Task: structure prediction
Amino acid sequence: MNKERMLTGDRVTGKLHLGHYSGSLKNRVMLQDQYESFVFLADVQALTTHFERPDYIRRHISEITLDYLAAGIDPERTTLYIQSLIPEIAELTIFFSMFVTVNLLRHNPTVKAEAKSSHFDEMYYGFLGYPVSQAADITFCKATVIPVGEDQLPHLELTRKIVRRFNELYKPVFAEPQALLSETPRLIGTDGNAKMSKSLGNAITLDSSTEEVTRTIKRAVTDPARLRKNDPGHPEICPIYAYHQAFNPLESAEIQEACERGSIGCAACKERITASLEELFTPMRERRAYYAARPKLVDEILISGTQRTRAIASETMREVRDAMSLNYF
Ligand code: ATP
Ligand code: MG
Result:
């Protein structure tokens, strides 16, 4: 029996961070045997906010590819590709966009939140429509398992709507995908912001050196009400405690209790999370160094993954055109 397909991508807007790792990447690595796996570099989606700086996107392609390989994505088991090199996705986006209303997109809570925090005063057509393009990203390869963070749930809901509408308007070509949330569907930022994000400058990137991890954790906010070391803390609002839960789960219950009792100070608590992150990052650094020394190999991984993906995309578009009676000759 064919395996189900698992697929996700990341916007090429900067290095990947712990939020990506705990929200999605860890699951992708863990499940790459269970599913036929696809991971893509979302350069088109990056253009929705970075269309003035395509060179910036270009520069980050190999960085994110190294992040994937360092995190344990195995190119033998996962197909890696670049979104803009699969033109069928753009074609499918156009077909889908005919039956998605502007109102539905305007009310998408993630689009609204991102528009609010962006530096643009106006809403751009491509940005408003990116969830439609995301539906095409998922469906062109008929992926059904989508490991994502919580902010993606409205987009998955829209994809399911689009699939149902397409199947009912034309022919049943697509299956409905499901989001696969991790135990940390939204990792808090080092500044206490609800979401660690590339765009907000509150992230610990996966390529951080020991010094960078130590420094960023030292500077991270904690419970602001805790002025003295022995004051009882409120772990539920502290980013450091959230990191213990995500990256040091075996000790997190003890740390919670000690913080609430005031028997562990913030500095000691930070030292312990720094040690756990070092354990996570050490094997990643080794894999990164291996691939960073072999840029040709990294290019080949992307080229062969993109070729493989195009073959799948063109097969799906043949079915789509058949279903829509657009197969003229
Ligand atoms: P940007 O701010 O440029 O949109 P981002 O940090 O939100 O960048 P994306 O590329 O948009 O990253 O997201 C890629 C994937 O990582 C998505 O599935 C998203 O839900 C997940 N993700 C990103 N940040 C977090 C986080 N802080 N916690 C959990 N999951 C996250
Ligand atoms: Mg995002």
Summary: The first strand starts at residue 5 and ends at 11. The beta strands are 5-11, 36-42, 78-82, 145-147, 178-180. Residues 11 surround magnesium ion (ligand 2) (CB under 6 Å). The two ends are 33 Å apart (CA to CA).
